[in-house]
Amino acid sequence: MDNGQKAIRTIYFSIAGNTALAAIKGVSGVLGNSYALIADAIESTTDIFSSLLVLLGLKYANKPADDNHPYGHGKIEPLVTFLVVAFLVTSATVIAYKSIQNIQTPHKVPEPWTLLVLGTIILWKEVSYRLVMRKSRETHSTSLQADAWHHRSDAITSVMAFIGISIALVFGKGYETADDWAALLAAFFILYNAYLIFRPALGEIMDEHVYGELQEEIRQVAVSVKGIHDTEKCFIRKAGLTYHVDLHAVVDGTISVTEGHRLAHVLKDTLLRRIPNLGHVLIHIEPYDPPQQP
User: Among 69, 70, 177, 256, which residue's Cβ finds the most Cβ atoms within 10 Å?
Assistant: First the structure.
């Protein structure tokens, strides 16, 4: 199974989980008099739509290159990530607004059993975060990473709700709004997570150089090829789940053009074979002039 298929299967897992949790949180929040749980349900609902966006983006990014897109369709992935961030910001804004309204409105203390619901949700969302984040690292998918952070932000809002409801139950009258304050605090955590998701996606769109380890691996593989003396420039840019490489390889300056061309192809084939997730590899040949003996 290739990375694209792995990422798509992971998103199906997220969609199914978020759909079930949104329903559980919504019903529990209404019956249990907890706006923190309702806020959680709102976020899980936006998570469903954002995961659907990620799914569509991954499917589009997985399309093969064509005449109009010779480097493939991978750049759609960070663009989808921006939309996911927009969903996060929107849900945080809605949660904050409703929390402030509820803080100003007298209401009942949440039901004790809502803590059991929240405890289960926290465990599930943390497991989901770790699973999806592991898959995002395996597939090098920024949009999958964004989806993983959705799970983590959901876990954080649930933790805040758990604390808020616990305070309201322990201290009783006068502390009914504790879970609303918890939901308001969770909204700020969501905004912070939105920034953490946005920043690497922006770097990907701007072709920011953040691939030092991959660059070093490329250089090591290159000099292991017979006839390649060294490497000079090595530029890497990411598109979707693949990395496109421009590499300047140093060869003996006295060889023929034909031999230099052959070495470039050998080097390219070696890099594609030994390093996964490489897309287009462009090799530029530089002449090597050995130092003169005194």
Answer: 177
